[in-house]
Amino acid sequence: MTATVLLQGLRQDELEALCLEAGEKAFRGRQLWDWLQKTHALSWDAPCNLPARLREALRGRGYEVGAVAPLKESADATGTTKWLLRLFDGETVETVRIPGGKGRVTVCVSTQVGCKMGCAFCATGKSGFARSLQAGEIVGQVHLVTALQGGVRPDNLVFMGMGEPFDNYDEVLRAIRILNAPDGLGIGARKMTLSTCGVVPGIRRLAGEGLQVELSVSLHAPSGELRRRLMPVERRWPLDELLAACADYTAKTRRIITFEYTLVAGINDRPRDADELAAHLRAFPCRVNLIPLSPVEGFDGVAPARETINAFLRRLARNGIEATLRESKGKGVDGACGQLRRRVATGA
Ligand code: SAH
Ligand code: SF4
């Protein structure tokens, strides 16, 4: 059986080489690139001025176009829209479109079908892992939203949907470079945020890529002991190793890191948690993003009261740590990681 490869995950020079291999001229590769980039085509059936014989030849070798199809759409009062997408092999992932101020749009993309990391409070972590996405499936999510917006590309991208980006490092980095290409969608690297649960080798590799992308690290706890209760990844890459990698990253790239900290009542929201967190983070340039827990089936935790959240925020600030509160957008559309898919899968 020929493996399916999605063309949106190939660079222009690779498309040219592919056309040469198929007995065509290299300029057909440039045409193919333009077609994919300008029309946001998501299937071979989309109108196309490439010769039918070329399309047939590529199709015969397992090359597909986009192949992300919306199965289900939900929107809430804030204008946040979430799609459940069907991939070529029937697997499903989620993509979320979040409108912000001044008409700016952020798109949250998935990088894997499910996730191996098993964080206790995460719907994706609870649904297990099926496979990693190809670069073309990651890029395809952005083309899909662009097409639905009448050809207007989103302003910001966050790799915070389903999956752990650094458990699919090569395809994610490939997708970033393609999305960044000036003759493609041309989304600035600074407008893209990668979020990791703390896969240390990924942070170290990213530091050497020379990319201007933003890095978020999901910390969620100020000590290894507490972190282990929430995030199994702590066993593999303990907090001290993670923080050392973060410090090296900021020194090498001269970029700051955003730490994500999901607040769970009575677990990680005590004043001394804020103090301990601040003590770790004073060592290098960073900021903290507090996220009140979104309720998840199978995890019996809740978000702290508003008062506690504000007190945590003030305490970090008093300790010299810049912190903001991120209201979980898209609550009305099963906004948190993996929740829509889980609901569809369980028929709830
Ligand atoms: N795997 C990556 C990126 C996807 S998760 C990571 O873990 O960083 C994106 C963010 O959503 C992470 O910070 C994650 O911890 C957070 N998250 C997951 N489930 C959540 C929930 N129920 N409530 C609040 N935040 C949640
Ligand atoms: Fe995976 Fe991130 Fe969910 Fe953890 S929070 S299970 S790393 S998607």
Structure, explained:
With 348 residues, this protein is α/β, with parallel strands linked by helices. It folds into two domains: 60 residues, DNA polymerase, domain 1, CATH 1.10.150; 280 residues, TIM Barrel (Alpha-Beta Barrel), CATH 3.20.20. The chain is 37% helix and 19% strand. The strands form three sheets. A ten-stranded mixed sheet has the order 3-4-5-6-9-10-11-12-13-14, covered by helices on one side. Helix 1 packs across helix 2, helix 5 packs parallel to helix 6 and helix 7 packs parallel to helix 10. It is elongated, with a radius of gyration of 21 Å. The chain starts with a strand and ends with a helix. The C terminus is likely disordered. The site of S-adenosyl-L-homocysteine has 17 residues, from strand 10 and strand 12.
Short synopsis of the structure:
This protein is an alpha/beta fold.
Helix content bin:
25-40%
Q: Using the coordinates above, name the CATH class of the largest domain.
A: Alpha Beta
On the 0 to 100 scale, the average pLDDT is: 92
> Which regions contain 5 or more consecutive residues with pLDDT less than 50?
343-348
**Which topology of the largest domain does CATH recognise?**
TIM Barrel
Between the first and last Cα atoms, what is the distance in angstroms? 36 Å
Major β-sheet strand ordering: 3-4-5-6-9-10-11-12-13-14
Count up the helices. Answer: 13
Tell me the CATH architecture of the largest domain. Alpha-Beta Barrel
Number of domains as seen in the coordinates: 2
Main beta-sheet strand count, sense and barrel state = 10 strands, mixed
> What is the overall shape?
elongated
Category from helices, strands and their pairing: alpha/beta
- CATH superfamily placement of the largest domain: Aldolase class I
Number of strands: 14
Strand content: 15-25%
Question: Which ions and ligands are bound to the chains?
Answer: S-adenosyl-L-homocysteine, iron/sulfur cluster
- What is the H/E string? EHHHEEEEEEHEHEHEHEHHHEHEHEH
**Rg:** 21 Å
